[in-house]
Amino acid sequence: MEKESVIKITHDGLGNFLNSIQTLFVGMLRIWSIPIVLMLSITAGFTTFYGLSHFIIPWIALAITIAIQSVIVICSLEIAGIHWKANRLRYLSVVLSLLVAVSASVTFSYFRFYEISQSENIRISRINHIRKDVNDYLAAIQITKSDILKQQNGELDKASADVTQAYFGTHAQVPAEHKNLVGEGPFWRHYNQLYQAKKAQFDQLEKEFHLLDEHIRTLQTSLNHLTDDTENNYQKALAGLQEVQLKFNQLATNAGHTVPLTPILMTYAQLVQTITPSFAMWNDFSPFAFACAALVDFFTVLLSYRLESTAPGPLSEEEQELAFECLRQFSEFRINDNDELEMVIEKSDIERARRYSDWSRIFAVGFLLSRGFLRKIDERSVEFAPNLYPLIAERMGAQLRAIKAQSLEAAAQIRQESGDQ
Length: 421
Fold this sequence. Notes:
single chain, mainly alpha, Arc Repressor Mutant, subunit A, 3 domains, four-stranded antiparallel β-sheet, 11 helices, rod-shaped, disordered N terminus
């Protein structure tokens, strides 16, 4: 008998200990949800204010931001405590207000997250745009260079042919008396002099184009390393582009060719300029930035919704006794689809026939609804909130213990009376 008693006490003590730990853990989670909601709301407010302040005056943006975040938290709490069947107009107005506030918050928060997530991509896009403009210009230079070399090579070949014809006396400009006379005469020396001058000019042109190619390679090297050391390499690229432009324009002009248009590049300040929020950001939509903006408000709404399960404050002993006694006067209870205990708060037909006054119990229902311990389902029924069950269980346990104590006391009296007889 003693062993069974010890085992029972041990099991009861362990169960109470585990139940206390679970209750403490759940309570801590509920308490911890409050600072989390505040931090999320402040975070969403900062990103919303950042985006909104680029479109309106900052102090007005701050006031609107505070209103938006307040509406999100308040409506999330309200929507958790009402059912659409109870008051459809109120429910829809709360949902609409929440949607408007969340939409505004996500829209302007998107600008901040877009700036953070896309800044590097935009910088790389600007660099690639610069590279493309410069490479297109260099490609045009190569085409013009090929035309110049082709023209100069053709003139050199013609001069060489003139020298050969002058040597054999077959040139069209040779006088009739010198036709078909082979040798290095005055006529040949004249064309040979022209040929040597043209050849020297062609060699000098090739040498200058070779130097130009060196400048182009230096320019391309600077462009290829823009992502590594942007400031230094960009300055080198600008200087290299200017050097290539001057050298080539001089060569092309001397050869009688039209020079290609030089690209106008942005300054370094424009290259590294931060993004200014604008509605144009929606044209280049970023799913990642939108998801980040939406997640902050989603978690704010979710945790605010869950906070409704905790009442604004505990009930006093008198309030608990009042609620328990008044709720006991209702007779119609059931478990609804939300797995909560639901009760009908309307008078029954018999109570109506007897003109029963239910003012006290209806007052208790209104009191518990305002404190968050009951939730209204529709016009005739309410359900228990999760935080009401422990209070009712405690009261029921106290009554059961009192009844058990009375029964034990009565049994002891009976045994005493039997012993006396």
